[in-house]
Amino acid sequence: MLARIQVPSQARRGEVMTIRISIQHAMETGYRLDDFGRAYPKNVIHTLSCHYGGKEVFRAEMGSGIAANPYFEFYVLADQSGELRFEWQDDSGVGGAERATVQVVT
Amino acid sequence: MARRFWCRWCRARDRAGCDLIQPMWWLWFMSIGIWCAVTPWSSHSAESIPPIFSISPPASSTPLAPLGRSGITFASPDIRQLQADNFANPGMLWVTRGETIWRTPSGVKGQACASCHQDAQQSMQGVSARYPRLDTGRGTILNIEGQINRCRQEQQATTPWVYESADLLAMTAYLNYQSRGMPIAVTIDTDNRTQWERGKAIFHRRQGQMNLACVHCHEQLVGRKLLTDTLSEGHGNAYPIYRLEWQTVGSLQRRLRSCFNGVRAAIPDYGAEELLALELYLGWRSSGLTVEAPGVRR
What is the ipTM of this complex? Predict the structure, then answer.
């Protein structure tokens, strides 16, 4: 699953980093009907999480009210050099992962 | 000779039997006369029919303001901000996907786009700003989608992508993104003038149950409201666009088809000559505007 992430490659210790992620997903609500009146099965990304240095720093649980191609922007305090790992999964069992490394300088 | 009748018109024998001097008759004559005098003749003439129902072609297209404003200038500030932000712009997901397809080999020859064209950032710069153009060999109009499929069939020897497929949208977005910020340069010459005139005729032709031409909304009523949307000048310089209503990226032909649907006209098929001619006219019409792909609209 295609996603774009924006993480600063370098940050000062104690700095607040802006993290952005945008995932390509139709976010099918389950309310839409096809030409024969049958509902398209609901298929949304239900969970998105972000781990920083092995610790979960952000988690979002989504439902049918989130628009297609969800976009998130959140803030993380830079305290150690390490890896930011993003994971998400949708209702059909398809998931994705992205990772980025942050270099924290004093 | 004795008078046989007292009144020569109603042949009454005396004054009391004469109908014409009865006061009730005069009341009737007077009221008919007054009605004819006060009722204006204009209410019976054809001029009072609202002009929207006339079947005459529209008068010469006289825009309210000089053309040359991109569609984004009519959008609300949040939409403008979303388009300008290269990360938050959802259309950039398609650009990213197109970049992957550019480098991925396809077809029996195992050729990728990059095999011939190398780095798109250099080789494809400003290319899509010159489309649609005339395919001189076949005498048909080629838009950027048509050119991609021509390459796929002739160079890569694979099946063409259908309109609005995820791959074609991604590749179109990627190619048009390479021309971002460059002026549209669609030129009309003796070769493609026939097609241009056809496109111009379609643009000025009343059609559909609404009996409207493109020119009515997109030149004569620019800046006014259609439901909650502001009417733009109808330029295609930001296509393919991410439309919030569609929740996905769509091509210019998808937008044109939805306009045909809006005026309740027969909708041409994707890739129809009618739509291609209209695309050529629109491209010429927005010459000089900068390419904004991938755009964001409501």
Answer: 0.93
